[in-house]
């Protein structure tokens, strides 16, 4: 879970925390960075949408990176039921950077 100023902004599950954190450092590898850039910086001059193959322009990447430095990470080890827990937390708190609801479905 990622928190900003005490507010939950993202929840996700992973079998590898270190792998997930490394992915979050690159806009091509993680949707949380792409969601953050789109939601918070799309009106900045020179904004171009990032994809899984194209990063944001350098000045947008820098803004995303600076914002993410303020995030706090909380990890809750669960031996089973990770996806169900993620879906429950997401449906209850509606974190702004989560882009999907239940697996495979778009947020309503």
Word description of this protein:
With 108 residues, this protein is mainly alpha-helical. It has one domain (2-93). 40% of the residues lie in helices and 8% in strands. It is built from four helices and three strands. It has a three-stranded antiparallel β-sheet with strand order 2-1-3, with no helix packed on it. Strand 1 (2-4) and strand 2 form a beta hairpin. Helix 2 packs across helix 3 (58-69). The longest helix is centred in the middle third of the chain and has 12 residues, at 58-69. It is globular and about 45 Å long. The chain starts with a strand and ends in a 15-residue tail after the last helix. The model is unreliable at 101-108 (pLDDT under 50).
Quick recap of the structure?
This protein has 108 residues and is mainly α. It is 40% helix and 8% strand.
Which key terms come to mind for this protein?
108 residues, mainly alpha, 3-stranded antiparallel beta sheet, 4 helices, 3 strands
Radius of gyration over all CA atoms, rounded? 14 Å
Number of domains: 1
Mean pLDDT: 88
Q: Low-confidence parts lasting 5 or more residues at pLDDT below 50?
A: 101-108
Shape: globular
What is the tally of helical segments?
4
Provide the helix percentage: 25-40%
């Amino acid at each position: 879970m990622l928190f900003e100023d005490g507010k939950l902004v993202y929840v996700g599950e992973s079998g590898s925390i270190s792998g997930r954190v490394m992915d979050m450092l690159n806009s091509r590898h993680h949707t949380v960075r792409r969601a953050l850039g789109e939601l918070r910086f799309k009106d900045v001059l020179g904004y171009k949408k990032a994809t899984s193959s194209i990063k944001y322009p350098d000045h947008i990447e820098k803004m995303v990176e600076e914002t993410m430095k303020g995030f706090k990470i909380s990890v809750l080890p669960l031996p089973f039921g990770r996806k169900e827990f993620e879906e429950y937390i997401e449906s209850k708190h509606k974190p702004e950077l989560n882009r999907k609801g239940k697996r495979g479905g778009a947020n309503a």
